[in-house]
Design a protein that fits this description.
Layout: E1 2-5, E2 14-21, H1 27-31, H2 36-45, E3 48-52, E4 55-61, H3 62-80, H4 87-96, H5 108-111, E5 118-119, E6 124-125, H6 130-141, E7 144-148, H7 155-169, E8 174-179, H8 195-213, H9 216-225, E9 228-232, E10 244-248, H10 256-263, E11 271-276, H11 290-298, E12 304-308, H12 318-328
Parallel strand pairs: 7-11, 7-12, 8-9, 8-10, 10-11
Antiparallel strand pairs: 1-2, 2-4, 3-4, 5-6
Helix pairs in contact: 2-4, 3-4, 6-7, 7-8, 10-11
C-alpha cells in the first residue's frame, strides 16, 4: 500500500507531493532498469521525481504532480498484485491518468489494479486503457461484439486472448479466426503454393496474437486437430458455427452481403467479435463497407455490444498514437 501526502495547490501553481511505499524491495521493479519508468513519467508529465529511501518526492505543476503520484501509486499496486510492468504498461497508466482529478482523489482505474483480466497459458493480460476495460467486460458478457477504432488499440489482440482463454477452459470447443482477403492498396499478383500458403499472408496478424498467448507447439497441435481454424471469410459461407469463439478481423473490408453472411453463421453457445477501423476501408467502393452498415443496423440490439476506441486508447508505442492523430485529426 502506498501512503500519499497531498499539498493543496491551485491549478497552475507548483506543488510538491510525497508518496511512501510500504514494500521497498519492489521499488526496483517500479523504477525500471536505469530508472526508465521514472524518466518516462517525468518526460510525459513534466515533473521532477526524487527518491528518498522508500519515499518519492514529486515536484511540478499541481495537476501534473497529482497525475504522476497517481501513476506511481497505480504501478506500485499492480506490482504488489504480481502484474508485470513494462514500458507499455507505464505509458498506459499515464494515459489513463489524463482525466482531471478532484483534490488529490486518485481515479479508481489508475490507482488500483484492474479487476478484469484474461488468463492464457503464456501470460495474464490486463486492460491498458479505460475503453479496454469496457471491451474486456463486453467480451465476457455479450454474444456479438463490434470493436471499432484505429490500429494499436488492442481490438484483435484482446479478442484472440479471450478466445484462447475460453478454449483452454473448455467454455468453447473451437476458435475460428477469419478476415477478408482484401489487398491494402497493393497488387500482390499470383501467389504460389496451396490454399493455406496463399491466404496466410492476409492472416498473419491473427497468428501473431495466437503465438503470443499460447505456446507454439499448442498452436500447431490445435490447428492440426481443428480446434483452431484460421481461414479467409469466404470459407464461412454455408456453415453454422456452434460452440465456437469466432473473430472477424479487418471487418471494414467486408461488403454488406459478406457481413450479413458472416453474422448469420452464429450458432448455439458461440460468441462473435468483429474488429475493424471504419476509416481504413480498402474496398473499391468504401461506402459499401459491411462493418459500417452492420453497426448502423444492430447498435442497441439486445446481446450486441459496440465498443468504439479512439486515439487515446492506442497502446502500442506512443508514436503510433501521434501518427494516427496526424492522419485523422484529434477527434479520431
Amino acid at each position: 500500500m502506498a501512503k500519499k501526502h497531498h499539498v493543496r495547490a491551485e491549478p497552475g501553481e507548483r506543488a510538491r507531493l510525497e508518496v511512501t511505499f510500504e514494500k521497498p524491495y519492489l521499488l526496483g521493479t517500479l523504477f525500471g532498469q536505469f530508472d526508465q519508468n521514472l524518466v518516462a513519467i517525468e518526460n510525459r508529465l513534466g515533473v521532477y521525481i526524487a527518491a528518498r529511501g522508500n519515499r518519492l518526492q514529486i515536484e511540478g505543476e499541481a495537476e501534473a504532480a497529482a497525475r504522476a503520484r497517481d501513476v506511481l501509486t497505480g504501478l506500485y499496486n499492480r506490482i504488489v498484485e504480481g502484474q508485470q510492468i513494462d514500458t507499455g504498461a507505464v505509458e498506459a497508466v499515464i494515459a489513463m491518468s489524463s482525466e482531471p482529478t478532484l483534490d488529490g482523489i486518485i481515479r479508481h482505474d489508475v490507482a488500483e489494479p484492474p479487476k478484469v483480466m484474461i488468463r492464457t497459458r503464456k501470460k495474464t493480460i490486463v486492460p491498458r486503457s479505460p475503453t479496454q476495460i469496457t471491451y474486456m467486460e463486453a467480451l465476457v458478457r455479450n454474444d456479438v461484439i463490434f470493436a471499432l477504432g484505429p490500429a494499436g488499440t488492442g481490438k484483435t489482440y484482446l479478442a484472440v486472448a479471450q478466445a484462447v482463454s475460453q478454449l483452454i477452459s473448455g467454455s468453447v470447443d473451437r476458435l475460428i479466426l477469419s478476415r477478408p482477403a482484401v489487398e491494402a492498396g497493393e497488387r500482390l499478383g499470383f501467389l504460389p503454393g496451396d490454399m493455406k500458403e496463399k491466404v496466410d499472408p492476409y492472416l498473419r496478424p491473427l497468428y501473431d496474437a495466437l503465438y503470443d498467448t499460447l505456446p507454439a507447439e499448442q498452436v500447431e497441435r490445435r490447428i492440426a486437430s481443428g480446434e483452431i481454424e484460421i481461414a479467409p471469410l469466404a470459407f464461412m459461407r454455408g456453415r453454422t458455427l456452434a460452440n465456437a469463439f469466432i473473430i472477424l478481423d479487418e471487418a471494414q473490408n467486408t461488403t454488406i452481403a459478406q457481413m450479413k453472411m458472416f453474422l448469420t453463421r452464429f450458432g448455439e453457445n458461440s460468441r462473435m467479435v468483429i474488429c475493424g477501423d471504419p476509416k481504413q476501408v480498402d474496398l473499391p467502393q468504401p461506402g459499401q463497407s459491411g462493418l459500417a452498415d452492420a453497426v448502423a443496423k444492430l447498435e442497441g440490439v439486445e446481446g450486441i455490444a459496440v465498443v468504439p476506441f479512439g486515439i487515446s486508447d492506442v497502446v502500442r508505442h506512443p508514436v503510433v498514437g501521434r501518427i494516427v492523430q496526424a492522419y485523422e485529426g484529434p477527434d479520431a
